[in-house]
Known about the structure:
Layout: H1 6-12, H2 20-30, H3 40-47, E1 55-56, E2 59-60, H4 70-85, H5 90-102, H6 104-125, H7 136-140, H8 143-156
Antiparallel strand pairs: 1-2
Amino acid sequence: MVAPYSPLLALLCTIPGVDKRTAEVVLAEVGPDMGRFASAGHLASWAGLCPGNNESAGKHASGRTRKGSKWLRTALVQAANAAARAKGTYLAAQYARIKGRRGHQKAIVAVAHSILVIAWHLLTRNQPYSDLGADYFMDRQSSQAYTNRLVRQLERMHYKVTLEPADTA
């Protein structure tokens, strides 16, 4: 039954954490034609994997994701768990970055959302996945902003900080 879709399955299997069974579930639930979704955000919203934003008068309420296909969510969460354990990948770095602030469950759902967005782009462009790398977040972060954050941390610990450039000889 999946033989006509083997090129699409091969594309989806290039994503870290996604195996043949997960690719089959994604293709069965979403379909091979991404034209029905205007953007990756529309697909994530349809699948129920986009975070909610419930804020009013400065108070934040629960930002739970809404209900979607339970089979698609289960497959993507399993793929996200596998991707989080992969070494040296963008998705593993994303998981580690979010887990430190928000916890395991929210980080896994965020990675599952990213996998679904990546799948939309792969199926739309018909190109294999190219990983951004584990150091994507550190390379993109301004070194000045990083320095300022470290200085603020030391000042909160009641240290006086003076910065001098190091000799690079």
